[in-house]
Structures are given as structure tokens and as C-alpha cells.
């Protein structure tokens, strides 16, 4: 098990700063499909990480390396593809819960707006959004979106929660190869066929596996975790 090291202002301003840092790579790393979804990483492949001082936990694929990164509380990278990473930021805020900050849709729109305002952004598209409760009752918002920029295309997973007057943002990213991102789309009734078709193209299966790994990590994230 990895273990964490011991250790406001306006909530909206704090959100903008933290979200911008996470999305542009200060965290370089945040969330959506639950482990029960098709294609998610098996629970046995994930190694628990708990930061008791900051009261959060997650699980990362075995073999991923922990790195230091300015602005990130913790950052993990896939050693086989450094552009695939996941990290967490923790920031003090004045509100007590994510419900007080905004709805699932409202917070998701702020996230997309933050991305869209960057000069390098060409397009940003929401893939999915959902909410869930953590083990100790904290509400978590999960998002997945695709970002096209002058630097290329990425699929990003992002989980946001506020509990105990702390803003938690988990941000994970995967750099797509050409059109390969579509192999990992959540999809609807027609999505399975589209994904299968994309997976048959070169690199599709690897893309799907990488995105499943990020989704598995995001699904494991929890905030407001009691100290052990």
C-alpha cells in the first residue's frame, strides 16, 4: 500500500485556479466510469493509496510510479507511457460541500468553460458525467471529456468533491493517438459497435485499456476518508 505524507478564499475562484492547474498539466493527470462498467480494470490490478493527513484515498495500477509535481498533492504516472497520469489536488475553500458549490451539471460546465477559454484549446466535448457517494457520505462528481488543442488530443477523467471545507480534484489524462480516443468512448446503444470497430484499427485495444485504467482509478477515489 502506498501511504501519504502528513501534511480559502472564495470557492469559485479557488475552483477556477485548481481546475486550470489540473487541466493544463500542473497536476498533469481526474473521472468517471465505475469499476462495474465494461472494460474497467480488475480490482486486483489496483494498489491502494491513502493520504490520512488530507483524508482521501484512491487505487492505482500496480507498477505506476509516484512522482513529485508542483501544485499536486500526489501524482502517479504510467512508466510505459508518461503522458498517461493521474493526480490529486487538495485546496481549502469556504463552503462545506460540493452541493453548496453547484450541481453536477453546473460544476461540469465550469470545468468545460475553463478548458474552452485557453488559447490552445480547439474543442472540448463532454463524454459523460455522473455522481456518487463515498464511503463516509461525501458527494463526488465524475466527469469524462475529450480535449482537442494545438498540442494534440486528450481524453480526461475528472472527479471533484468538497468535504470538510476542502476542494478535492482528481484529474487523469491520456494522450490520444490520432482518432484512437474513440476506442475508449463510453458510448450508448450504438457505442459498443463503434468502439469495437475502432478497436479493430491499430492501437484501439491499447487505448481502451489505458482509458479503462484511468476510469478505474477515478472510480476508486474517495474524499473525507477517516484517518486510520
Can you walk through the features of this model?
There is one protein chain. The protein is of the alpha+beta class and 228 residues long. The chain has a single domain (2-223), classed as 3-Layer(aba) Sandwich (Protein Transport Mog1p, Chain A), CATH 3.40.1000. The protein has helices spanning 11-24, 98-101, 104-116, 191-200, 204-220; strands at 2-3, 46-51, 56-61, 65-67, 74-78, 81-92, 121-133, 139-149, 152-163, 166-175, 222-223. The strands form two sheets. The protein has a seven-stranded antiparallel sheet, sandwiched between helices. Strands 1-2-3-11 form a four-stranded mixed sheet. Helix 1 (11-24) crosses helix 3 (104-116) and helix 4 (191-200) packs across helix 5 (204-220). The longest helix has 17 residues, at 204-220. It is globular and about 40 Å long. 45% of the residues are buried. One of its GO terms (biological process) is photosynthesis. This is PsbP domain-containing protein, chloroplastic-like. It comes from Raphidocelis subcapitata. InterPro entries: Mog1/PsbP_a/b/a-sand (IPR016123), PsbP_C (IPR002683). Residues 46-173 form the PsbP C-terminal domain.
Concise structural overview:
InterPro entries: Mog1/PsbP_a/b/a-sand, PsbP_C. The protein has 228 residues and is α+β, with helices and mostly antiparallel strands.
Question: Which features characterize this protein?
Answer:
228 residues; alpha+beta; Protein Transport Mog1p, Chain A; 4-stranded mixed beta sheet; 5 helices; 36% strand; globular; PsbP domain-containing protein, chloroplastic-like; Mog1/PsbP_a/b/a-sand; PsbP_C; calcium ion binding
